[in-house]
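no rush on this but wanted to send it before i forget. what follows is a protein written twice so to speak, once as letters and once as C-alpha coordinates for the fold. mainly i need to know what kind of three dimensional shape the backbone takes. thanks a lot i owe you, the record is right below.
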Amino acid sequence: MTNRSTAKRSRILIIAFVVAAASVIAAPVAANAVYMLGGMNSASYRVKDPGYNSTWMTPINAARTNWNNRCGPCNITWSDDAAARIVSVNKPTATWNGQYQPSFGTSFRIELNQPKIAATPPFSTSLRSTTAHELGHSFSLGDYPDRGNTSVMSYNRDRMVVYAPTNLDLVEVDDYY
Protein backbone atom coordinates (compact mmCIF):
# COMPACT_ATOMS: atom_id res chain seq x y z
CA MET A 1 0.00 0.00 0.00
CA THR A 2 1.40 3.39 -0.93
CA ASN A 3 1.69 6.35 1.37
CA ARG A 4 -0.81 8.14 -0.83
CA SER A 5 -3.55 5.50 -0.45
CA THR A 6 -2.87 5.24 3.29
CA ALA A 7 -3.24 9.01 3.67
CA LYS A 8 -6.45 8.98 1.62
CA ARG A 9 -7.87 6.15 3.72
CA SER A 10 -6.94 8.01 6.93
CA ARG A 11 -8.71 11.16 5.72
CA ILE A 12 -11.84 9.17 4.86
CA LEU A 13 -11.85 7.54 8.31
CA ILE A 14 -11.39 10.91 10.03
CA ILE A 15 -14.23 12.45 8.02
CA ALA A 16 -16.49 9.49 8.79
CA PHE A 17 -15.65 9.78 12.49
CA VAL A 18 -16.35 13.53 12.55
CA VAL A 19 -19.70 13.06 10.76
CA ALA A 20 -20.70 10.25 13.14
CA ALA A 21 -19.70 12.28 16.21
CA ALA A 22 -21.63 15.32 14.97
CA SER A 23 -24.72 13.16 14.46
CA VAL A 24 -24.56 11.85 18.01
CA ILE A 25 -23.99 15.31 19.48
CA ALA A 26 -26.84 16.87 17.45
CA ALA A 27 -29.39 14.16 18.31
CA PRO A 28 -31.89 14.97 21.07
CA VAL A 29 -31.16 13.11 24.27
CA ALA A 30 -33.74 11.96 26.80
CA ALA A 31 -31.26 12.05 29.68
CA ASN A 32 -33.60 13.98 31.97
CA ALA A 33 -36.86 12.42 30.88
CA VAL A 34 -39.78 12.61 33.28
CA TYR A 35 -42.09 9.64 32.97
CA MET A 36 -45.35 9.16 34.82
CA LEU A 37 -47.37 6.20 35.96
CA GLY A 38 -50.67 5.82 34.17
CA GLY A 39 -49.60 5.86 30.56
CA MET A 40 -50.95 3.23 28.23
CA ASN A 41 -49.31 -0.21 28.25
CA SER A 42 -48.69 0.14 24.52
CA ALA A 43 -48.07 3.15 22.27
CA SER A 44 -50.70 1.71 19.93
CA TYR A 45 -54.22 2.06 21.26
CA ARG A 46 -57.82 3.01 20.44
CA VAL A 47 -59.85 6.03 21.61
CA LYS A 48 -63.59 6.50 21.30
CA ASP A 49 -64.29 8.98 18.52
CA PRO A 50 -65.59 12.08 20.34
CA GLY A 51 -67.85 12.91 17.39
CA TYR A 52 -67.67 16.67 17.92
CA ASN A 53 -68.16 19.27 15.18
CA SER A 54 -65.24 20.30 12.97
CA THR A 55 -64.34 23.23 15.24
CA TRP A 56 -63.28 20.63 17.80
CA MET A 57 -62.40 17.61 15.68
CA THR A 58 -60.00 19.33 13.29
CA PRO A 59 -57.52 20.35 16.06
CA ILE A 60 -58.05 17.10 18.01
CA ASN A 61 -57.35 15.07 14.86
CA ALA A 62 -54.33 17.24 14.07
CA ALA A 63 -52.85 16.49 17.52
CA ARG A 64 -53.52 12.76 17.11
CA THR A 65 -52.08 12.75 13.59
CA ASN A 66 -48.96 14.63 14.73
CA TRP A 67 -48.21 11.86 17.23
CA ASN A 68 -49.01 9.08 14.73
CA ASN A 69 -46.99 10.53 11.85
CA ARG A 70 -43.91 11.60 13.81
CA CYS A 71 -43.59 8.92 16.49
CA GLY A 72 -42.44 5.45 15.45
CA PRO A 73 -44.36 3.35 17.99
CA CYS A 74 -47.38 5.70 18.24
CA ASN A 75 -50.65 4.61 16.68
CA ILE A 76 -53.81 6.25 18.04
CA THR A 77 -56.96 5.17 16.21
CA TRP A 78 -60.63 6.06 16.62
CA SER A 79 -63.00 3.27 17.59
CA ASP A 80 -66.61 3.45 18.75
CA ASP A 81 -66.08 0.65 21.28
CA ALA A 82 -62.84 1.97 22.84
CA ALA A 83 -62.72 2.62 26.58
CA ALA A 84 -60.35 5.61 26.32
CA ARG A 85 -62.16 8.95 25.99
CA ILE A 86 -61.49 12.57 25.02
CA VAL A 87 -64.24 14.85 26.30
CA SER A 88 -65.01 18.56 26.38
CA VAL A 89 -65.85 19.97 29.81
CA ASN A 90 -67.05 23.36 31.00
CA LYS A 91 -65.12 24.20 34.18
CA PRO A 92 -64.61 27.99 34.10
CA THR A 93 -63.11 28.18 37.60
CA ALA A 94 -60.54 25.43 36.97
CA THR A 95 -56.95 26.52 36.37
CA TRP A 96 -56.12 23.87 33.76
CA ASN A 97 -56.64 23.62 29.99
CA GLY A 98 -56.63 19.84 29.91
CA GLN A 99 -56.50 16.97 32.35
CA TYR A 100 -55.38 13.37 31.87
CA GLN A 101 -57.02 10.76 34.09
CA PRO A 102 -55.41 7.31 33.72
CA SER A 103 -57.03 3.95 34.27
CA PHE A 104 -54.53 1.15 34.94
CA GLY A 105 -52.58 1.39 31.65
CA THR A 106 -55.53 0.20 29.59
CA SER A 107 -57.65 3.33 29.30
CA PHE A 108 -57.84 7.02 30.14
CA ARG A 109 -60.09 10.06 30.10
CA ILE A 110 -58.80 13.36 28.74
CA GLU A 111 -60.85 16.39 29.73
CA LEU A 112 -60.48 19.47 27.52
CA ASN A 113 -61.60 22.56 29.44
CA GLN A 114 -63.43 24.68 26.86
CA PRO A 115 -63.50 28.04 28.73
CA LYS A 116 -59.78 27.90 29.54
CA ILE A 117 -58.79 26.80 26.02
CA ALA A 118 -61.00 29.49 24.46
CA ALA A 119 -59.27 32.14 26.61
CA THR A 120 -56.08 31.64 24.57
CA PRO A 121 -56.99 32.45 20.96
CA PRO A 122 -56.87 31.18 18.34
CA PHE A 123 -59.04 28.40 19.74
CA SER A 124 -57.92 25.76 17.21
CA THR A 125 -54.21 26.16 18.00
CA SER A 126 -54.81 26.24 21.76
CA LEU A 127 -56.98 23.10 21.53
CA ARG A 128 -54.42 21.31 19.34
CA SER A 129 -51.58 22.14 21.76
CA THR A 130 -53.62 21.06 24.79
CA THR A 131 -54.69 17.80 23.12
CA ALA A 132 -51.12 17.00 22.02
CA HIS A 133 -49.91 17.62 25.59
CA GLU A 134 -52.59 15.40 27.15
CA LEU A 135 -51.97 12.63 24.59
CA GLY A 136 -48.31 12.82 25.64
CA HIS A 137 -49.40 11.61 29.09
CA SER A 138 -50.96 8.55 27.44
CA PHE A 139 -47.40 7.71 26.29
CA SER A 140 -46.23 8.01 29.93
CA LEU A 141 -44.60 11.43 29.46
CA GLY A 142 -44.68 13.57 32.58
CA ASP A 143 -45.04 17.33 32.88
CA TYR A 144 -42.09 19.69 32.70
CA PRO A 145 -42.43 22.95 34.59
CA ASP A 146 -39.73 24.81 32.69
CA ARG A 147 -38.62 23.30 29.39
CA GLY A 148 -40.03 26.19 27.37
CA ASN A 149 -40.54 25.45 23.70
CA THR A 150 -38.38 22.30 23.69
CA SER A 151 -41.29 20.04 24.67
CA VAL A 152 -45.05 19.88 24.17
CA MET A 153 -45.06 18.56 27.76
CA SER A 154 -43.69 21.84 29.14
CA TYR A 155 -46.04 24.01 31.18
CA ASN A 156 -44.37 27.20 30.00
CA ARG A 157 -44.34 26.41 26.27
CA ASP A 158 -45.83 28.95 23.89
CA ARG A 159 -49.03 27.13 22.91
CA MET A 160 -49.18 29.10 19.66
CA VAL A 161 -45.72 27.80 18.69
CA VAL A 162 -45.54 24.32 20.24
CA TYR A 163 -48.71 22.42 19.38
CA ALA A 164 -47.17 19.11 18.30
CA PRO A 165 -44.64 16.72 19.85
CA THR A 166 -41.07 17.99 19.51
CA ASN A 167 -38.02 15.87 18.71
CA LEU A 168 -37.32 15.64 22.45
CA ASP A 169 -40.83 14.27 23.11
CA LEU A 170 -40.43 11.71 20.32
CA VAL A 171 -37.06 10.50 21.64
CA GLU A 172 -38.55 10.09 25.11
CA VAL A 173 -41.50 8.04 23.82
CA ASP A 174 -39.14 5.90 21.73
CA ASP A 175 -36.96 5.32 24.80
CA TYR A 176 -39.97 4.36 26.92
CA TYR A 177 -41.58 1.91 24.50
Observations:
- Residues 3-26 form the longest helix (24 residues).
- The domain at 32-176 is CATH 3.40.390.10 (Collagenase (Catalytic Domain)).
